[in-house]
Amino acid sequence: MSFLLYSVPIPLWLLILMIAVMAPTLIKLGKLAYRLKQGEIVREEEGDTVVWKVQNRVRAPKTPRGASDQEQAKEKEREKKAELAQILKILIKEGEKGVLMKTIADRMGISMIHAQHAMQKLMDKNMVEEVTGVSGTKYYLTQAGKEYCRRKAR
């Protein structure tokens, strides 16, 4: 190695770069060799081709596609209901002051788009009204919204 360094000047940064580029490949190759040595990978020869089969792999249990979609839909529905309840709680706490959309989104920790979508649902049910003023659009709880919250609180 010393002969090579004295005959051809190789910069140190080039050596470091070469090691950095080769390291991930060598690590993957080492893991593959370890698995081959442990017997997890079996070599089967079929004609002219070599097929490598992996054994002892844990596979996810197969569930019907429709069942998982239904579960995901139910979970999303629960999240939306929780968002609506959280918005109503925020509006009740503020009372007559009204709340800006940005404030609602910040307190809930969600994006403005999600908060606007949930607020639109509440406005469609006449639980919330919006009032546009100098400081922006504020949202107030209507009488129907207050009654709904009282019923749910019991």
TrEMBL record:
Protein name, entry field: Uncharacterized protein
Entry keyword Transmembrane helix: yes
Stored InterPro entries: WH-like_DNA-bd_sf, WH_DNA-bd_sf
Transmembrane segments: 6-27
Record keyword Membrane present: yes
Stretch list, region Disordered: 60-79
Keywords: Membrane, Transmembrane, Transmembrane helix
